[in-house]
Design a protein that fits this description.
The structure is a single chain. This protein is mostly helical. Helices cover 68% and strands 2% of the residues. It has a two-stranded antiparallel ribbon.
């Protein structure tokens, strides 16, 4: 039941509230790129973001036995029982954040607006601060040296291009 609450809050904030904000700030100041290009890139980012978010949630639930919802160190669902370092977590320490950022960037491109592009930029800056201040210290406390080693080996957000 606790996980259901966590997922409900997550869906309300990340898939309803923030996309609505994107739409509201998208009025005026269109991007100076071809709308066909913006739409193509937008759909590419949206689909990648959704696929990455789904993959991360399924992986976390199946292998971590938990839920991604934690707000200011207060769990809204069960915390993961195991440090995840494979699957999407081998590419990024924060694959859910990566997928969400790609999704919002795609929506902003589809809305073809400078204002809408500000939302994913502010989102990623805020979430980077939040994760480093609250989540990473908790993960280090929960998983100790295993997390420290993982943190050294895996990029914070964007996968390394080899």
């Amino acid at each position: 039941m606790k996980n259901l609450f966590g997922y409900t809050v997550g869906i309300a904030v990340f898939l309803i509230l923030l996309p609505s904000l994107l739409y509201l700030v998208s009025l005026g100041l269109p991007l100076p790129i071809n709308s066909v290009l913006a739409d193509g890139l937008g759909w590419l980012f949206v689909l990648f973001g959704i696929a990455f978010m789904i993959w991360t949630n399924i992986y976390m639930r199946k292998y971590g036995k938990g839920c991604p919802a934690d707000v200011f160190n207060v769990p809204l669902g069960e915390r993961t029982k195991k440090l995840l370092t494979d699957g999407p977590y081998r590419l990024s320490r924060n694959p859910m954040l990566l997928g969400t950022f790609a999704f919002y960037t795609g929506l902003a491109l589809l809305l073809n607006s400078y204002g809408a592009l500000c939302v994913p930029a502010i989102f990623i800056l805020y979430m980077t601060h939040y994760v480093k201040k609250y989540e990473e210290p908790r993960l280090e406390q929960d998983f100790g040296q295993e997390y420290v080693q993982y943190k050294k080996a895996t990029p914070f957000l964007f996968p390394r291009i080899k």
